[in-house]
């Protein structure tokens, strides 16, 4: 389910990343090439981006398919940014939350997205949810697995975890609680992208002149695209990428 993408690099129009490439995230909403779970990502979409001098990202999210929103094409044509995170959503379970369930989720200077699914949701994560402060549960943006995963990540970051380690620790905890989960998480603060490959595809392309893109799948045929091995934590800036193996949780 879902396709998502994050970019850090020179300022570009959002459409240069999200709409213009031949296999862009826009096209992946109805014709993904490497999506193994689900076929059409039409249950919502969103993009968050950073403006110069402002560390808090702006967001544009909708409950319907990206291709049905004529206003988004105009926005993407004129808004420019050096960092963004965007997603198109294929929901596993219908919810009444509308655009609140569409990534990216946000808090302070962070943007977050989840590509995957948690078997047995919500009961499978009841114990992990019970370990969160009550205020965190009351502040959940939506009643979906991605919103709870975001709360678990935020809790770890507030507890002092660096963002990449917060992703990795959350993935291990959720995988232990719900075996068979697909947990490709994506997080950025506008400078660094952190991501996990756990049960679904993840690729990256980095170029000193064009910046770095981390995505569920390549949006063009550029030979610089590199697939990330499953069970990997990826940390990327606009010029560098670090890959760290993720261990399976103890039985």
Task: Give a short overview.
With 251 residues, the protein is of the alpha+beta class. 23% of the residues lie in helices and 30% in strands. The model has no long low-confidence stretch (mean pLDDT 94).
- CATH top level is Alpha Beta
Number of helices: 7
- Largest sheet, strands/sense/barrel: 7 strands, antiparallel
- Strand portion: 25-35%
Q: End-to-end span in angstroms?
A: 27 Å
Count structural domains.
1
Strand order of the largest sheet: 3-2-4-1-10-9-11
Q: Count all strands and give the number.
A: 13
Structural class call reads: alpha+beta
The CATH topology label is Glutamine Phosphoribosylpyrophosphate, subunit 1, domain 1
Helix-strand blueprint:
Elements: E1 3-13, H1 14-18, H2 25-28, E2 45-49, E3 58-62, H3 70-78, E4 80-88, E5 105-107, E6 110-117, H4 126-130, H5 134-138, H6 145-158, H7 163-177, E7 182-188, E8 193-197, E9 203-207, E10 211-215, E11 226-227, E12 232-236, E13 241-245
Antiparallel strand pairs: 1-4, 1-10, 2-3, 2-4, 5-6, 6-7, 7-8, 8-12, 9-10, 9-11, 12-13
Helix pairs in contact: 6-7
Explain what you see.
With 251 residues, the protein is an alpha+beta fold. It has one domain (3-245): 4-Layer Sandwich (Glutamine Phosphoribosylpyrophosphate, subunit 1, domain 1). The chain is built from 7 helices and 13 strands. It has helices spanning 14-18, 25-28, 70-78, 126-130, 134-138, 145-158, 163-177; strands spanning 3-13, 45-49, 58-62, 80-88, 105-107, 110-117, 182-188, 193-197, 203-207, 211-215, 226-227, 232-236, 241-245. Strands 3-2-4-1-10-9-11 form a 7-stranded antiparallel beta sheet. Strands 5-6-7-8-12-13 form a 6-stranded antiparallel beta sheet, with helices on one face. It is globular and about 45 Å long. The chain starts with a strand and ends in a 6-residue tail after the last strand. The relative contact order is 0.18. The mean pLDDT is 94. It catalyses: gamma-L-glutamyl-hercynylcysteine S-oxide + H2O = S-(hercyn-2-yl)-L-cysteine S-oxide + L-glutamate. It holds the Pfam family GATase_4. Catalyzes the hydrolysis of the gamma-glutamyl amide bond of hercynyl-gamma-L-glutamyl-L-cysteine sulfoxide to produce hercynylcysteine sulfoxide, a step in the biosynthesis pathway of ergothioneine.
